[in-house]
Design goal:
It is a single chain. The protein is about 50% helix and about 0% strand. The protein is mostly helical and about 60 residues long.
Length: about 60
C-alpha cells in the first residue's frame, strides 16, 4: 500500500511529461508534412549527387 503513494505521483508526472512533449512537438511543426519525406524518397533524382560519384577508374580501381 505504501508503494502506491510513490507510484501514483510518479505516473502522473510521467503522463504530464509525455503530454507536454507531444504538445511541444505539435506546436513546433514536427507533424506538419509527414507525407513529404516518403514522397521524396520515391521520386527520382535528375542528376547524380556529387558525394556518390564513382572515382575515375571505377570503384575497385587500384590506381593511385
Amino acid at each position: 500500500m505504501e508503494s502506491l503513494y510513490l507510484l501514483i505521483p510518479l505516473s502522473v508526472v510521467l503522463v504530464l511529461a509525455i503530454g507536454g512533449l507531444l504538445v511541444w512537438a505539435a506546436m513546433s511543426g514536427q507533424f506538419d508534412s509527414l507525407d513529404q519525406e516518403g514522397r521524396r524518397i520515391l521520386e527520382d533524382e535528375d542528376a547524380p549527387r556529387q558525394d556518390c560519384a564513382v572515382p575515375p577508374g571505377g570503384p575497385h580501381s587500384r590506381e593511385p
